[in-house]
Amino acid sequence: MFSGRLTQVALRLLDSLGDRLVPAKIAPHRRTGQRGEQDAYFYLRRQGYTMVARNYRSPRRHGEIDLIGWDANVLCFVEVKARSEHDLKPAEAAVDRKKREEVIAVAREYLRLLPPDCHWRFDLVSVYYGLPREPLRFELFRDVLPLS
User: Fold this and answer.
1) Is 11 helix (H, G, I), strand (E, B) or coil?
2) Mean predicted confidence (pLDDT) in 85-97
């Protein structure tokens, strides 16, 4: 567990150093999303998930799944939404119908690679960034999307 925190701190430092040396031309909301996915990855590991994929895309479907991991014997397709405290809409409200359909289609493609009796579900992690010295807040919603 300590090595995960050390890795997370090292990644943050390298990202910060990289931003100072070569300023990225990434929109602020994209940067928040990337940071949210990285923080959610380490949060889920601390919750006991075994992570197996990040930003999974199917060659046959549009969209991506942010994180895929095992929670005990259940495969979890995880959508991550990151927000600053200044946003009015909660992060989980940003998963609209189109996004749900894309995630479901990509998950179906991934499930083709696994035995038919594999147990799975969809999870959502909301990451909230407050003021610089405030701790991150995470909300984990398990089994939020039906595969229909």
Assistant:
1) helix
2) 72
